[in-house]
Amino acid sequence: MKKGSMRLLALALAAALLLSGCASSGGEAGSKGLTWVTWRGYEKFIELLEETYPDIGLEQISYTGNSATSYNWAQMRAGDISDIFTTSQILDRDLAAEQLLDLSGYDFINDFPTSTLDQVAIDGKVYLLPINYAMYGIFYNKTLLEENHWEVPENFQELEALCGKIREAGMVPGVLGTHLTGNTFSAMFNLAKTSWLTTPEGAKWEQGFLAGDATAAGMWEDTVDYAGQYMDIGMFATDPEDRNNPDVLLDYLGNRKSVFCTAVFTVNITELPETGDKLGMMPYISKDGSKNVYMYNPTSYIGISKRLAEPGNEKKLEDAVKLLSLLFSPEGQASFITEETPCVLGALSSAQVPEDSMIYDAQQAMQEGRAFPMTYAGWENVLADIGLAYKEWFRGENNTDGEGCIARMDELQRDYLDSAGQVYFSESTADFTLEETAALIGKALGSRTGADASMVLMGEYHRDVPVMRAGVTGKLYAGRINTDVAASISPDFDGEYALLSMTGKEAKAFKEAGFTPEGESQPYPYVLVTKGGAELRDEETYQIAFLKGSYTEEAAGAYGAQVLEGSAGGMLREYLEEQKTVSPDSPWE
Description:
Mean pLDDT: 92
CATH class of the largest domain: Alpha Beta
Strand content: 15-25%
Structural class: alpha/beta
CATH architecture of the largest domain: 3-Layer(aba) Sandwich
CATH topology of the largest domain: D-Maltodextrin-Binding Protein, domain 2
Oligomer: single chain
Distance between the termini: 49 Å
CATH superfamily of the largest domain: Periplasmic binding protein-like II
Low-confidence stretches: 1-29
Shape: globular
Number of helices: 20
Number of strands: 20
């Protein structure tokens, strides 16, 4: 595949956003500068901030684990957030009100549409504001439509007629991405939003379903029937290879195999690389055309820790307000929107896009009330499995039909509510430091691999270098541990580990030197943990376990690395289940 395929960016809905390497992953209340978990894509704004306010000290904290959103809120529950708090979802409104500063009295709030403020308000106050929005619709090959003198359909009758013409031309009308089950979940929910799900009745049903007081049966039949009509006219064809969304779009639209592509992700191209064809976006089409809708999702929300309102933090609070005021200025917003973000819309009332932009109609929809938030919050525990049921229906697998999907929705939610207290498999009795968390992962790695010791990287913020994904950047906090918690502290690099043969003297020197990736000059620190807490003897040889990506090729050759398959996340879970409760003193016997 050409390089263009590598320039498509998938946006993960289960809130798996990757962040740059970190100095430490807590609030750092004693820091002199503002602490902030800065996300990838903030580089231009940071440059603008430094140019505009060179006196503002900024300590960038970041996170590279597997569950950013879960970790954000774990930090908040532990009272360990950074001065500037960033998250992809508002998961706990009461907790936000408890931990964050009310922003409603600051001037920058006046630049937001009333509709936005209504959506984020908590008891009349505002604690988190969206930075910008990723817009979602149905992608289409704009050039192909124009060459054939076909119009973008405005209702289902027009869509059905157009699909017939496309088939006559020897093409597939539309392809549906099914590789990620979140995509099929969203396809169904987005269709439902063209009718009942965006009404007061729909909102009441959703609240009741999540609480166990309502069922999908009796509500979803019309939407399932409508999805079946999409399948019948060829709009929801599936890829036999079940490739990821970017590859499906590039192949089917880029090679003119299909006109439409229903896939929930953002792109950073406006032309298809194979042909130079223009890429367009249209809304999800309602039956009569009266409610053709787009979806949106804030790329992130931002707020200020309530800690900054305490005596002694006056300078920090002043700087934080300056930062948000700049971020929500036209200049600040412009720093996030480039040629490589054609699906991103600014959050302010003044946000404008050119008429020939891919998301021009989506912006009009935002202003007219025809755009709705993506469904995610509250559905995290059943979203993937509901999506799997619909995926099997769309792909004709396991004899699944639409009626069975509705029954499966009810079964999954009922099972989740019945087993909600059983999803926890261990408990932490204390808040761990970052070093202690790395040591815990080292104990899990070592105990599962038969090693004598483990050497685990801690992530640090290094400016202007690639993200260090092999380091531990999330702390374990006191409380019950489930899959999300375990994933949130595991390094992003996974799937392999290695055993390196070193003398005790070599291992200690290796640990002191740290890990310096190729092309960098600043090392990342290791945490060395040994079986039983034993002291490594200088002349004795040991098997030292390393995680994937945490040692150089030179070291691999020098110390005879045995590279083996194995999931660090899986090893951590096994260790946690075995221990039942863990603390920084938990043993590796």
